[in-house]
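Long-time lurker. I teach an intro course on protein structure, and each term I like to show students one example going from raw sequence to a predicted 3D structure in token notation. This year I'd like something fresh instead of my usual example. Would anyone be willing to generate the tokens for the chain below so I can use it in lecture? Attribution to the forum is fine with me.
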Amino acid sequence: MRLALARVAPHRLGEMETQKNEAFALAAEHNNLGPIRQWLTIWAGEVEIERRPDLAARRRNAEHAVHTLDKDAPAWRAAMDELLAVVNEARQATA
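-- Reply from a regular --
Happy to contribute to a lecture. Here you go:
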């Protein structure tokens, strides 16, 4: 996972490492591999988004809309739906 992210988005390595450490700590604390599985799912999806210009552009556009539109605007809800669609598409591609 680290090598893949280093190739497509090296600027995100610190973020991934921090979340990995948190996942492993939670797994050890609760004697449960769930947090590690979740971390792997999340970051496999992040690598997929970062490696695909189409998904990365869709996410950037949706995030921009979410941060600039009024939350009561229908376009804000559409942008949130688009963010979810991007994440779901990436996770399906890596499942």
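Some talking points for your students: The two ends are 14 Å apart (CA to CA). The chain is about 85% helix and 0% strand.
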